[in-house]
User: What shape does this take?
Amino acid sequence: MEEKKKLKGKKKNTEKKKTSSKRKKKFFRFPTLFILVIVIGIGILAWFYLTLDYQDNSNPSYDGYRLSPSNSDVFAIHLPKEEALLTEGERVNSEFSEPIIQPWVQDKAVNYPAQRPFFRLLNMDNKQTVYKLSANLSSVKHIAKVEFPTFGEQDGPSDSQIYQGVYHPETNSWESDILIKKHQEAGRYQIKILITKENGTTELVDFGSFVVNQPSIEATIDNTDIGKGQFDVTIKTNTIPDVEKLIVPVWSKEDKSDEKKYEATKQSDHLYKVHVDYEDFDFTNGVYHANAEMIAKNGLKAGTDAGTTEIQLRRPVRIRIMQETTLFQNRTLSKSARQLAANSVAYVKGIVFNSEKKIYRTTEGYISAENIEISEMMDDIRYVAHRGNHKVAPENSIPSFQQSNSWGIETDVWLTKDKQWVIMHDKTVDRMTNGKGKISDLTLAQIRELRIDQGSNKENYSSDQLVIPTLEDFLTIMNSKQSIPFIELKAKKLAPSEYDSLANLISSYGMANTAVIISFDYSNLVEMKKRLPDTQVQFLANTLDDVMIDQMSNLGGNAGLDIRYESVANRADLIAKAQSKGLTVNLWGVPQSEFKKMESLGINNLTTDYD
Assistant: This one.
């Protein structure tokens, strides 16, 4: 029993010792944890003390937050200078992308660590035209000025522009606007912030960057109305900023001397158009070139070649208005100039169209082609030198033919005794040569012995130049000058063989389609027309009447009238009637003082003594 009591006593003592030991361990564990917490707290405070700059606003010399570390900041921990991505390529320095401690939760009674500056970069209206920079530097003290050096990577720092920051106290921020127009460069831009303190020290750090896209355009030519002398240039723009100006240069001459610049009008978003009318180019036919040049509101430019198109619009030189009508001052036909009488003639500069309405642009104004009969003349009035240029050389002489600059040259032909065609106005050689007698009584050999001894400046020409020309001499000169020969057939009642010889001679010189045969004898014209149906014949007369018009129109195509001008000076109606029947109208004997009046009659040719 005693042994059992002893064993129980030992167990109790052992348990007491264990309990006492546990109590001792617990007692030592709590002080250790307490000490450890204190040590860690001191370490954290030391880290804050070493790495963070506390705002001591009560100290006048306090500089506040430093954006770039000084050499003494050996223990400072700095985040890597990566940029925080915003939108559409805008980035700001990630160290300053947002504040550490929001100012609205701070207790002003407590000295918090200095609030880190933060930057903002905004693409205004998302147009890549103006970028707003904002730097909250409320924790940086004694700032004298803030600048934002900015440059495009394409041109590098040489393109650098310094933008001055403007302080806004309501937001405690420095702001500035970057204008891309100052750089006019596409690609990435780099921005820095330069802070100058009142004591002259500076801090320079990266602010951020952004990307400006290069605009582009496409242009095409719409030929829908090319048959009206008009075309459109359509331009499509691919640009983020708005378009400031879109110009379309158009030209038709290789040296661009007639270049005209049109400003495009907006049709819809990114779609513009220019309308070109060849009236702007004085109705020039030919190949037209067009480019397109765009300037965006941020100063960036884009251009493209729109291509080429060709205008070939046939137009008359003159028109005859067959009934009374109105001449207008403007193309819209809203301003009347004056009334035009029936059978009036107008010179045409070009034909224009208002939608489908055809309008003649004349030298004096605009005439509508609607509801009016108009006769178009494809050739201008043409002048014929009477007996050559007899103001500088004797009439019907080789020098007078050679020195004429007129479109046509008129001469007179007779048959010699041996049936050769020679040039002379009179039927005798008496007036113009050193001989006498009828041409029909002299042989060609006899005529060749004679010399012209009358007329203008005869002393300036050699004896060989003043021979009486043959028709062959005349046609040879006409061919070399490419002038139109007007051959007056003087003789009457010729034999068929004589008509044949004249026709064969004209044909042998290749002038059956260009020569004009004129005569006061209608039967001469009938006979020549039989032999040369493609040769024009004109009836010479002192007056014009309806019977003559009907008679000549019976000769078929390529016939005409050659009338002394006085008889038709006031008869535009007869001239119009003759032309309406397909007849050419030529006037002769017209003095220079009457040229303009005769031209206004709408005649085809005018034979004059003034080359």
